[in-house]
Structure formats: structure tokens, C-alpha cells
Write a structure and sequence with these properties.
Structural class: alpha+beta
CATH topology: Ribosomal Protein L25, Chain P
Order of helices and strands: HEEEHEEEE
Distance between the termini: 61 Å
Shape: globular
Number of helices: 2
CATH architecture: Beta Barrel
């Protein structure tokens, strides 16, 4: 394998950020469940949101939500602890 070919292989990865942490993906599509499975265990039960662009609102990502990833345009997500019923 040539160095050029190895470099091309590295560039084929997709990536995204969750809470500022970078995650790689070999696939162009992922789901909320897959993203959460890569998070630290303490955050896997949190709600996941995709940051909106410009004036677009942030979007809640459910476990079954399909997300397309684009090379060179990483998506940004963040987690929020689930609300506790009856909390003051």
C-alpha cells in the first residue's frame, strides 16, 4: 500500500463532535443510538441534541433518528441530563 493510498484511506473517515469530543465513523449514516453507544457510560442515558446552524433550532435526536454525515462538515451534538420529575 502506498503512502498516498494510506492517506486517502484516512481521509475517508467521517467524524462528528459530542460535547466537544471528536468521534470517528467509517459510515456516512449513523443513528442516535450508535452515537450514544460511543459516549461515556454516564452520558448514555442523556438526551442528545444536534446543534442548529444560524437561526435553525437545535434538534432532539432520538435513538432511532438516522443522521447523515458529510465529509468536511462535521455535525455537532451535545447531551443534556434527563429531567427528573418532581425536582424543585
Amino acid at each position: 500500500m502506498t503512502k498516498e493510498h494510506e492517506q486517502d484511506k484516512k481521509e475517508e473517515k467521517y467524524f462528528y463532535f459530542v460535547d466537544g469530543e471528536k468521534y470517528d465513523s467509517d459510515e456516512a449514516y449513523t443513528t442516535g443510538a450508535i452515537i450514544k453507544s460511543k459516549l461515556p457510560e454516564a452520558k448514555r442515558g442523556y438526551a442528545l441534541f444536534e446543534e442548529g446552524h444560524g437561526n435553525d433550532p437545535d434538534k432532539l435526536i432520538n435513538d432511532d433518528t438516522s443522521i447523515s454525515l458529510e465529509k468536511g462538515k462535521p455535525k455537532k451534538f451535545y447531551t443534556v441530563p434527563s429531567a427528573t420529575a418532581g425536582a424543585a
